[in-house]
Specification:
- The chain is mainly alpha-helical and 76 residues long.
- 62% of the residues lie in helices and 0% in strands.
């Protein structure tokens, strides 16, 4: 969501979360039977959070953006 509201701030730090998510080529969950969706979701999560994934690094770095930090701290 932060990329929708603060694209300039994130993109200035090369945090292009939407682009990187697209590069993961995630499956279309609507095309899968319900029984296969939990496994597909787990696979998607694991792929995105893999330590070698650029998306994982971006998700960590987004917390360093001042606007995001302020919002996150206000929510505590």
């Amino acid at each position: 969501m932060y990329e929708l509201f603060f694209p300039g701030e994130l993109h200035a730090r090369n945090l292009n979360l939407f682009d990187e998510t697209t590069r993961l080529r995630l499956p279309d969950l609507s095309a899968l039977p319900d029984a296969k969706k939990p496994a597909a979701l787990r696979e998607m999560f694991d792929k995105a959070r893999d330590a070698k994934s650029p998306l994982s690094a971006m998700l960590y770095d987004v917390a360093l953006v001042e606007e995001v930090r302020i919002i996150e701290e206000a929510g505590r």
